[in-house]
TrEMBL record, chains A, B:
Designated name of the protein: Response regulator transcription factor
Lineage: superkingdom: Bacteria
CDD domains: LuxR_C_like
GO biological process: regulation of DNA-templated transcription
GO molecular function terms attached to this record: DNA binding
Organism this protein belongs to: Ancylomarina salipaludis
Lineage summary: Bacteria, Pseudomonadati, Bacteroidota, Bacteroidia, Marinilabiliales
Domain HTH luxR-type, residue spans: 124-189
The UniProt record lists the keyword rRNA-binding: no
InterPro entries assigned: Sig_transdc_resp-reg_C-effctor, Tscrpt_reg_LuxR_C, WH-like_DNA-bd_sf
Keywords, in A-Z order: DNA-binding, Transcription, Transcription regulation
Length: 197, 197
DNA sequence: GCTGCAATACCAATATGTTGGTATTTATAT
DNA sequence: ATATAAATACCAACATATTGGTATTGCAGC
């Protein structure tokens, strides 16, 4: 999984923040710069070399030449258009065209699509790394609030084994905090909230 | 500072997410529900009893009677209007009126104002709280998976202070394990499951 | 039969959390 | 004005978790 860098050029603060929040949840992304006017955009693209540029054409007052100039500036950069106006359909790549009023599914589908495209280009293969049945059981006990020693005693194994399982679990899931593991266990029906001590 | 619960009723997913992000940074808030249509709103207000309702009038297609009905439903609830249209000025309380295109300063000033107003109101009525507001905030960060040191750095306090708060929290609540504290935080709307890392 | 994975066990170094103290400052309530 | 509570800070001893190793066994698939 490569880290994807993103520049957001959008006047509305709430839209900026919304995009940032959505992108953060979408994976290993990073919004490296937010701008609310066109000045300095070209310079930012040159220095930051982002993988994605999310741009509101209003910043250029609709001047499509400038937008094309943006694209030309960077090969590995995917352009996403975010607009508050009707009637932009057809002017831009529909796969990467968002509107202020779009709902969750549209937004997520678009951004995930763009991200997948980039992932494919970068030949980043993401393999699902499921945890084994034994590891699930260990995780369950972690999420229930037991210590390594308590788990070892309950399962009649050495504490070293528990530590090893725990190591593998955190590595496979990419979750290192106990609270994160707890939420994972809840969401994957390994435990119920009322079982936790 | 009590925990403030918020319902966001807004069709645009990005605006939803943007508001959520801004509110999260504003302090001890929690967006307890987001909705993108008017159905179920009254029910949510009744059951969740939020402190703030952020509403886009477009959900009611401009029917101001329904909006007033919202207000009437809850005394301790402050209404914030979020709109994508020009010409709403004067129709609503200007202190609590936002537009899609507003910049950072306007947005923050408005939401901080609303929050301060609520804080002042609530200062009187809090009494039977098991843990203090500060402790709630610490607990929130514990449940999010931060270490004591990370919490100390984020809140600009010593790690000793965090340890002390943590001691008091576990004693007051009688919950020792991190997973237990995490579940408590989820059940008490201090965090949402998808915030945990 | 070889390969790879899962489960088991162990070690050592380091990091982080726990517990039981003390103590100061500020704000609020009686 | 004074008692109380909350937030802050610190210490020391101890407990527990994390990380990066190594190693053995058994089992399933090729």
């Amino acid at each position: 999984m490569n880290n994807i860098t993103i520049v957001v050029a959008e006047a509305s603060y709430l839209i900026q923040k919304g995009l940032e929040a959505v992108l953060k949840n979408l994976g290993d992304n990073q919004v490296v710069q937010k701008m609310d006017k066109a000045e300095g955009l070209f310079e930012s693209l040159s220095t930051l070399k982002p993988n994605i540029l999310i741009l509101n054409p209003d910043l250029f007052e609709g001047n499509t030449e400038l937008i094309k100039k943006c694209c030309a500036k960077l090969k590995a950069c995917k352009l996403v258009i975010i607009s508050n106006k009707k009637g932009d359909e057809g002017k831009y790549d529909e796969d990467a065209l968002l509107h202020y009023n779009d709902g969750q599914s549209k937004i997520l589908a678009c951004l995930e699509g763009v991200k997948d495209e980039l992932d494919r280009k970068q030949k980043v293969e993401r393999s699902d790394e499921p945890i084994s049945a034994r590891e699930k059981n260990i995780l369950k006990h972690i999420a229930l609030g037991l210590t390594n020693k308590e788990i070892a005693d309950k399962l009649f194994i050495s504490i070293h084994t528990v530590v090893t399982h725990r190591k593998n679990i955190t590595q496979k899931l990419g979750i290192k905090s106990v609270s994160g593991l707890t939420v994972y266990a809840i969401l994957n029906n390994l435990i119920a909230m009322d079982e936790v001590k």
